[in-house]
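User: Assemble these into one structure.

Assistant: Restating your components, then the assembled model:
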Amino acid sequence: DIQMTQSPSSVSASVGDRVTLTCRASQDITNWLAWYQHKPGKAPKLLISSASSLQSGVPSRFSGSASGTDYTLTISSLQPEDFATYLCQQGKSFPLTFGGGTKVEIK
Amino acid sequence: QVQLQESGPGLVRPSETLSLTCTVSGGSIRNKYWSWIRQPPGERLEWIGYIYNSESTNYNPSLKSRVTMSLDTSKNQFSLNLNSVTTADTAVYYCVRYSRGETPFYSFDIWGQGTMVTVSS
């Protein structure tokens, strides 16, 4: 199975901050990487697919990038509604696997 | 737009079968990939498997021996059966649309709200 490792596990930030989250794959996943936003008691929401393709309706302050087996989700200016847990998921091979998440908390 | 809603018992006894149904509204269940994903308390999301048009299934090897997925096109529903459950199967279960062969590629684009299933005697 492909292991997905997210870092940090949590981050404290303020409204307006730039936040960068990382997801590392245990092997090459050729950019088949998705990012989700997950709030307590809600279903995860797809933000980005194919490492950098923003889903329709997702604010442009969210962006994704890739470098080798490292993938990055950047929130350019954190908004109050962005405090949540962010998950990555690889779509390269079965079984499909998720990272453990990064919780973005209010500083 | 397409919406998903899980239904089924919230409590299952150990060794019995967990059965959940997902009702799809706002679109046809045909020619799409439908998945189940779960999240045990304090753990990461785990993909259980997918079903496509009743002709194709793909299960997580970690659960394959206990999982069966089915699809009812007349009701626009798909279902999950997980047999011989233990307390380790306690989790929030989500029904999800898996996007394969079309954008957004190889990701889960529509989710149900999730349903908590507790395995306990």
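The mean pLDDT of chain A is 96.
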